[in-house]
Design goal:
308 residues, alpha/beta, Rossmann fold, 2 domains, 6-stranded mixed beta sheet, 10 helices, 12 strands, 32% helix, 26% strand
Length: 308
């Protein structure tokens, strides 16, 4: 496990990325400090900048402005730093004409810290045939192969960009279970980008909500959930709240209003009893505020699906 003085997994200061002179601003004024030893969930709608942030972290692209360090150094600063990061891109790309065994052989040639015993053990555990070509594998099997290759580098950080989105529920469960087994075995940190909040809830203990190219909220999942609440009152009754209470999103249903609020420790007494929020409510509140959406109380799921 990482030491208490380990550098942050990610440290961004005013990080920005724009594609082309007149292109889209993919990231803007991103400021983050993510501690080591965490499993980080990165959520947000399509076009929010999730893949851009992960590609920056892997050194595949350069920022337009600001700075980013990964494990205390510039991304892909040298061969040693590259070996510390394992990356599984969208659609878990593998070489269709290569066998499973040939993938492991290639991994061994390209990675000085390659753990062949770990790779072979994991291949056996998930039931992959070393002689089978990757192009003949199912989506779940390809995901397991890509995960094994990334982990057999024995990295300090595993990065996953929507790796399980196209998998069926059973394959996705197996992928996430193996992901967590690798994190524990390697003592690594992990970043998981996903549209699927169920996946984030299962495995992640740190959350980053990215929307409209900016970080809307980030922090320890338990701290975020205890620091937010749902208030229910008559319409207009939530217009004035004590100092230290920030309204993230207000929704109206008939004569009543529902508000998701963030509370400082020094916040004054609330006019109505606070109710706990779910992770989905919290994420949707920040995403809806960023997108300027007007949704009803019964529209939470539909709003999430619309932004996917």
């Amino acid at each position: 496990m990482p030491h208490a003085d380990s550098p942050p997994v990610l440290h961004a200061t005013d990080l920005a990325k724009k594609y082309g002179r007149r292109g889209k601003q993919a990231l803007s004024e991103v400021n983050l400090t993510v501690p080591a030893g965490r499993v980080i969930g990165l959520v947000g709608p399509n076009g929010a900048g999730k893949s851009t942030l992960l590609h920056l972290a892997c050194g595949l692209i350069e920022p337009t402005a600001g700075s980013l360090t990964v494990l205390g150094a510039r991304p892909a600063a040298n061969a040693a730093h590259l070996a510390k990061v394992g990356f599984v891109a969208q659609n878990t790309p593998v070489y269709g004409s290569f066998t499973v065994a040939e993938h492991l052989k290639l991994g061994a040639k390209m990675n000085p810290g390659w753990d062949q015993a770990l790779a072979e053990r994991r291949i056996r555990q998930v039931g992959l045939n070393p002689a089978q070509k990757a192009g003949q594998l199912s989506g779940g099997q390809r995901a397991q192969l890509a995960l094994t290759i990334a982990a057999a580098k024995r990295p300090d950080l595993l990065i996953f960009d929507e790796p399980a989105a196209a998998l069926d529920p059973l394959a996705r469960r197996g992928f996430l279970r193996n992901l967590m087994e690798f994190v524990i075995e390697l003592g690594a940190s992990a970043v998981l980008s996903s549209h699927l909040l169920d996946d984030i809830e299962q495995v992640c203990d740190y959350l980053i909500v990215l929307c409209d190219s900016r970080v809307q909220v980030a922090g320890d999942v338990r701290d975020l959930l205890t620091g937010h609440a749902r208030l229910v009152g008559p319409r207009g009754g939530l217009d004035r709240l004590p100092l230290g209470v920030e309204v993230i999103r207000t929704e109206h249903n008939g004569h009543y209003s529902h508000a998701i609020v963030r509370m400082d420790t020094a916040a004054g007494p609330l006019p109505y009893p606070p109710e706990p929020v779910s992770l989905q409510e919290l994420v949707l509140a920040y995403m809806s505020r960023a997108a300027g959406l007007e949704i009803g109380v019964h529209g939470r799921t539909e709003a999430w699906e619309t932004q996917r």
